[in-house]
Amino acid sequence: MNHELISAYFPEINTEQLERFRMLDSLYREWNAAINVISRKDIDFLYERHVLHSLGIAKVIRFAPGTSVLDVGTGGGFPGISLAIMFPETDFHLIDSIGKKIKVVKAVSEALGLQNVTAEQARAESLNEKYDFIVSRAVTSLPEFLSWTRKNITKRSLNPLHNGILYLKGGDLGEELKECGAKYQIYHLNRYFKEEFFSTKSLVHLWF
User: Which of these ranges, 10-24, 90-104, 168-182, has the smallest mean pLDDT?
Assistant: First the structure.
């Protein structure tokens, strides 16, 4: 799988964006050899299992210019870096509790020339800033994630979707969603992407 998978699903991206997506392969292979942020078996599926998975969010919402997004538990930069390439007029704050992962995020962002990304070693529980949306890829159970991040959602609204959480996760979410006490909408990613990987993957939008 290569970067052409991205242009196939997002034909509207421009040449600069496509070049940035193309660069991800060599950047992550180089960094992964030094700091393991993507599993060895997954690196050959970078575009499908990491980049395209992250861009499932872009199939559901086109962030308005000036939107602020917090990526919690970003790891090596997913979904934040992929979304930052896709939405250059949106501000992304990527956090992870593990410093070496943030080192990779900063290096990749710098190599790509992304001006709309800040990265920080931090835990969501300790952040007081407000954001329009909080994104993440299955870092913990949804009720726990909400307990960390609910305080960080701003009341102002720039987008058609309600401000809230956009959470990428697989499997049956029924029990977790019952415990959340939030309004929600589930988007099954196999509606947008044909690869088998997405057959059990969903994006959950939660708001209050």
Answer: 168-182
- Contacts of residue 66, defined as CB under 8 A and 6 or more positions apart, other chains included, come to 89, 90, 91, 158
Instruction: Give the residue extent of every domain in the chain.
Output: 4-207
State in words which class domain 4-207 has.
alpha beta
The span from the CA of 167 to the CA of 139, in Å, is: 9
Residue 186, φ and ψ in degrees, nearest 5: -105, 130
What are the tens digits of pLDDT across the range 103-162? 999 999 999 999 999 999 999 999 999 999 999 998 889 999 999 999 999 999 999 999
Interatomic CA distance for residues 189 and 197, integer angstroms: 10
Q: How far is CA 151 from CA 28, 57, 107, 199, 208, in A?
A: 33, 22, 30, 32, 11
